[in-house]
TrEMBL record:
The keyword Protein biosynthesis does not apply. Gene3D superfamilies: Cupredoxins - blue copper proteins. It is found in: Membrane; Periplasm. Its cofactor is Cu cation. It comes from the Bacteria. This is Plastocyanin/azurin family copper-binding protein. The keyword Calcium does not apply. It comes from Thiohalorhabdus methylotrophus.
Amino acid sequence: MKSPIWKVAVLCMLMVAAGSAWAETHEVEVRNLGSDGKRMVFEPALVEAAPGDTVRFVWKDMGHNAATYHPDNRGKPALVPSGAKVWDSGFKQPGDTFEVTLETEGAHHYFCLPHEGMGMVGIIAVGDAGKGPGLEAVERADLPDRAKVRFRALHDQLGN
Ligand SMILES: [Cu+2]
C-alpha cells in the first residue's frame, strides 16, 4: 500500500532546490520614476549575477527598451565582455517582460535608446566583473555625460 506520491514530491523538491542553486532569476524594473525619485531608470541598475543566471526586465511604463552596448546595436560602443551575447528587448508595454540569460563573465553594460542621454543605463555583472569592461573603457567611450555619471556610480559599487 506504499504510495509513490511522496517519492515524486521529494524528487520535485530536490529538483527545485538544485535548480535554484544553479541558476537564479534577477528582476529589473523598467520605470519612468525610480523609488529614489530619479527619472527614467532601470531598478536596480546594477545586477550581480552568476554565469547562467537570467535577468528578467519588467516594464512598469512604456516607451523604453533595454539593449547591450555593442556596435551591432545602432553602432554603440562595445561595453560588454568579448564574445558576450548581444541583445535588444525592443519596446514593450507595461506588464511585459524580457528575459536574457548570460554566460559570459564580466560587466554587461546596457542602455535605453530614448533615455540614454538621461542616464537610463545599467550593468549586469556576471561572475567576476573584474573581467571588464571596466570604468576606463566607459570613460573612453563616446557616451552621453549622464550615462557616464550613472556608470561611475555603478562601477563604484562594483569596485572596478
Ligand atoms: Cu527609457
